[in-house]
What we know:
The protein is of the alpha/beta class. The chain contains nine helices and eight strands.
Amino acid sequence: MTGVDAHQHFWRPARGDYGWLTPQALPSICRDFGPCDLEPLMAEAGVTRTILVQAAPTEAETEFLLGIARATSFVAGVVGWADLEAADAPQRIAALAKHQKLVGLRPMLQDLADDDWILRPSVAAALDAIEAAGLRFDALVTPRHLPHLVGLLADRPGLKVVIDHGAKPAIAAGELNDWATAMRAIARDTEAFCKLSGLVTEAAEGWRLADLQPYVELLLEAFGPARLMWGSDWPVVNLAGGYLAWRAAAETLTDDCSAAERALIFGETAAAFYGVAA
C-alpha cells in the first residue's frame, strides 16, 4: 500500500512567527520538530512521503519549509502561505510557485475574525493566481465556515480545494448532525476533497474508536476513498495520543474498505490531488 501522509508540520518556535504556539498554551509541543523526529514514526507506520503544511501566517515560514523540503527527500510537497490581500499578491504567488516543491497555499481561515473573509473581493485576484499557477488550496475551516466555503466552491469550480481535518467537527461535544449535513452537501455538490486528519484533537481526552467512528463513517460515505486522504497532523497529534495511535485508529476505522480503497485513502488520493509522486 502506498504510504503518503497528507498533512504534517515542522516548526522552530524561536523563529518567532507562530502566534498560537506558546509555552504557556501548548508546552508539550512548543519545541523544535524536524525531519529526524518524524522519520522513525513514518517508518513504523509504513509512510514514505509527506505533504508539509504551513503553521505560521508568513511567507518567511513558507521559505523556511521549502528549504527543509529541498533537503528532505521524503517531503513530496509544501503547502505554504501568502498574503492573499496584498496588492501584489498575484506576483508573490507566481514567485512562490516557481519553487519545485510548492504544491499549494493555505490561509489560516480558522483564525480570522471574519468568517466570510475568503469571499472578499480583495482576495479574488490572489485566488485567480492560485488557479493560474496550478496550486492547490487547503481550506483550514471549522463548521461555522462551511456555508462560506460553499460560496467559494460555487464561485470557483476550477479551484482545487481540500478541506483540512474534516472541517474540525466538535467531536468532544458530540455535535454531529449539522456538520454531517453540511459536509454531505459539499461532497455532493462540489469536487472538493477532504483530509482524514485532525479528528483526535477535536475529540475528548482519552478518546476511543467509538468516539471517532460516526465522523469517519460520514466522511467515507460522503467523499469516498478517491476524495479522502489520511494525514497525521503531526506534531499537533501529540496532544491526543500521537502519530502511531492515530494511524492505528484510522486503519481500524477503515477496515471495511477494500485494499484498493485503503490504498487511495492512505496515499494515492493525496498523491493525485497534489500532483506528486507517491
